[in-house]
Structures are given as structure tokens and as C-alpha cells.
Amino acid sequence: MILDDEPFNDKRINVTALPETEVTCKSCDACCCRLEVLLITDTGVPGRFIETDQWGGQRMARLDDGWCAALDRNTMMCTIYENRPLICREFEMGEYECLVERKANL
């Protein structure tokens, strides 16, 4: 309850003074791009980025260092964004799973 004689503005937090914590693809360490991505639906991923696993399933190709082969390492952006796998579409930047992966890889 706010009393009339209490100055309301003194109780506010200045949100413009809070540090910026937004995660963007360009500022991210791209932890998600080091995860194994199974292809469970056809989204048009170009064949050169598809590997077959030991059980016959399809997954995104990864480079020798474990990074996704479709990631442009200079810009940290996906080179097949419009055709990226379903799991990549659902893995939202800044959401819980993203933050867990970032914390695990820092």
C-alpha cells in the first residue's frame, strides 16, 4: 500500500541503470552450435550439412572441433538460417536452455 505522503518515485528502480544482459547471436559464445542436432523433420537443410549417425539417423554435420558446420565463425551467424533444423528453431536465444548451455561453457 502506498501512502499519499510517501514519494512513490523514491521506491522505483531505475531500469535504465541496470546492466545489459541480453543475449544476441552476434554477442553469444554460440554454445548451442556445439550441441549435437538430430534432424527429425525436413526443413531443407542442404545435404552437405547432413551426416548419418551409427544408427542410421540424420544429424547436422560438425567440424573436427565440434562446432556446427553451418555456422559462420567470423560472424557467429547461421549460414542456413532459413533452412535450419527444427531443434535450432525451438532453441530460443536467452531462454532457460540457452542460459544453461552458456553457463556450462563459460
UniProtKB/TrEMBL annotation:
> What InterPro entries would the database entry show?
Puta_zinc/iron-chelating_dom
Q: State the name under which the record lists this protein.
A: Zinc/iron-chelating domain-containing protein
Q: Name its species.
A: marine sediment metagenome
**Lineage of source species:** unclassified sequences, metagenomes, ecological metagenomes
